[in-house]
Specification:
- With 143 residues, the protein is of the alpha+beta class.
- The model has no long low-confidence stretch (mean pLDDT 94).
- The radius of gyration is 14 Å and the shape is globular.
- It has a single domain (2-133), classed as START domain (Alpha-D-Glucose-1,6-Bisphosphate, Chain A, domain 4, 2-Layer Sandwich), CATH 3.30.530.
- It is 23% helix and 40% strand.
- The chain has a seven-stranded antiparallel beta sheet with strand order 1-7-6-5-4-3-2.
Length: 143
Amino acid sequence: MADSLHEISIAAPIERVYAAWTTADGLASWWTADCRLAKDVGGVHVFGFQGRDVLFHFHVDTLAPPLHVQWTGIAGPNMTDEWIGTTIDVQLIPEGAKTRVRFAHRDWRSSDGAFRACNTTWGELMYRLRDACEGRRPGPLFR
């Protein structure tokens, strides 16, 4: 099993960073403009890419405001079936007026295949998340 791990400090209150992970507007400000979110734990988020030709479905495992978000991949396009069974785990740690984000995309079956490209993309996305939360408006990486 392989894990993608990233950590970044964001000069924004924890509530703003949590909202960036848990609202459609928040996610569209840095990740993808196509977000269909479940309201509660147990629901399924659907994220669209490439005009909805590529869809990722995530079971919502944990919503613990404002400290923790966790999703598990349950369906994806053929080229990224590797996401199925992986877990996205976001831990938010308050540090005064800042928030530390500890991000993990865990339980990849292998570090081959899509893992390396996804790891690189998540690294870029952490900086877009930071910029969005700090008010720089990068917009979604994927439209």
